[in-house]
Amino acid sequence: MNRCGCGKRHAMDGLFPEHAYDVSMIRQPMVQTPERSQLMPSKGVLALHDHHHRYANFNDFQPQLAGLLQQGSLLEDCIQVTQALGFLEPLSGEHIPPEAIQIQGPNYRESLIANGLLSRNRAILLLLEQLYGSMEDLRGQEVYLVEALSGFALWMRRRLEAEKLVCSEYLEDAEQAFSEIPHQDLCALTFSDASFDLVVCNELFEHVQDLDLAFREIARVLRPGGRLLSTFPLAFGQQESIKKALYNTATGEPVLIGEAEYHGDPVRPEAGSLVYRIPGWEVLNQLQAAGFADVAIHHIVSWKHGVLGSDLPGVLVIEAQR
């Protein structure tokens, strides 16, 4: 199954405030039984209000896949709940009212926009909340965020001290000047060994020329016990990655495997960013080979916190610990 967690089809395939957390406010009937109010969401939808599962490998995930895809059919009902109640933003605890949420198409992983954050960004925040407890605790960490122009980067900069947060972009072949943003190449980071407690890297690993080298570099700059958290399009139905292009070190040019695929890129909005691969579950083995001791993929779904997916009901997030 050549599907990935980004919702694209590839060539190869605290609680809510009491007034806000009242499910009777849901406008559309979802269940019609004599025993229950017609305005109550179904049992299946209620099960997705805040669900989180950690998978150590593809063999753990594969038996659950059919059921997860079936749960994906409940996404529209989950959206009805969100449109009625809003959601709680992870870490900040801010209640986002329905009128402050933008929904752009059925790929909710890339939508449900509020405070500049997407659904997949809030999945990262939920995992950070689980791992670090609070924003105050997170402020004590040295953090490297491998992005600087996104709404997520702006959200983080507003909440973390400047001396505790480093943001960067890959600026080679940039289509305009970004004089105040530092350039970093994940395959050749300029930071000293053991510089950070946390690295967050979103929607980038599919574009990296040498992913194994990038993983080794991230492991190098993390302190013992430090973590990498990441989202990216995952070929979640298979162990092997889907190869799209190879990097020719002799010529410095990509060698395409089939039709070229590009994703949007704020640094290169006209050209876009070439996709080298859609990683499969083998990415966990690559992380272990790079020096990470504990690796997993989390499936996080929570209409309570504005985290919904596309084919899957939730968002897949990598966690790798040194």
What can you tell me about this protein's structure?
This protein is of the alpha+beta class. It has 9 helices and 15 strands. It has helices at 43-47, 58-61, 65-71, 75-85, 119-132, 135-138, 151-159, 211-221, 283-289, and strands spanning 51-55, 87-88, 95-96, 143-145, 165-167, 196-202, 222-231, 242-243, 245-248, 253-256, 262-263, 273-274, 277-278, 294-301, 315-321. The strands form 5 sheets. The chain has a 7-stranded mixed β-sheet with strand order 1-14-15-7-6-4-5. A two-stranded antiparallel ribbon has the order 2-3. Strands 8-13 form a two-stranded antiparallel sheet. The radius of gyration is 20 Å and the shape is globular. The relative contact order is 0.19.
Question: What does the secondary structure layout of this molecule look like, with pairings?
Answer:
Blueprint: H1 43-47, E1 51-55, H2 58-61, H3 65-71, H4 75-85, E2 87-88, E3 95-96, H5 119-132, H6 135-138, E4 143-145, H7 151-159, E5 165-167, E6 196-202, H8 211-221, E7 222-231, E8 242-243, E9 245-248, E10 253-256, E11 262-263, E12 273-274, E13 277-278, H9 283-289, E14 294-301, E15 315-321
Parallel strand pairs: 4-5, 4-6, 6-7
Antiparallel strand pairs: 1-14, 2-3, 7-15, 8-13, 9-10, 11-12, 14-15
Structural class: alpha+beta
How confident overall, as mean pLDDT?
Answer: 89
Radius of gyration: 20 Å
Count of helical segments? 9
E-strand count: 15
Low-confidence stretches: 7-38
How can the largest sheet be summarized? Answer: 7 strands, mixed
Strand residue content: 15-25%
- Helix share of residues? 10-25%
Write down the overall geometry.
Answer: globular
In sequence order, what are the helices and strands, one letter per element? HEHHHEEHHEHEEHEEEEEEEHEE
Distance between the termini: 31 Å
Strand order of the biggest β-sheet: 1-14-15-7-6-4-5
